[in-house]
Here is the input.
Amino acid sequence: MSMDMSTGGDTGLLDTLQHEVAVFARRAEQTRLGGVGQVRNSMDRAAYLLLNRLDAEGPMGVKALASSMGIDSSTVTRQVAPLVDTGLVKRTSHPEDGRAVVLRLSPRGQLRLEEVRSSRRQLMAELTHDWAPGERETFCALLTRFNTALSARMSPQDTPGDSTQGTPGVSGVSGRGTPEAPETA
Here is the structure.
């Protein structure tokens, strides 16, 4: 059951919010938030999120990775294939069960991820160069809160790992400062 929360004077503000989120999503996808040196340092959103997750949580199987990201295993399998083909992710046998496959970030994948992070970090610095540090912190906290609420709304209650959707370095204040958007953004 959904509740209409757009009552009273909030309607205009909520209209502006939904519009700005739509514009942000379009522009982010158009640029792939490629950072500085756009083409060289751009990376597909799905690839970035998968590499980031493997870096943050270490080697894991497809099911664990899918659960951690709150998406379907078949989606992970499809998205990982080109990363394996290009050598950014390695498939290895599970140390305890040789029949199981474990995905891990390759040294090349780690290097590529760091290049993209550095470029995106520089882009964020340029876009917010005239913001006060407190404004950056507030924006990161609110964007994290927004993404967490969106992720919770879009995912079934029983999906494990969903609450960690944006935890590694999302605040932009600690960790790597690499916010993760919901998978469908």
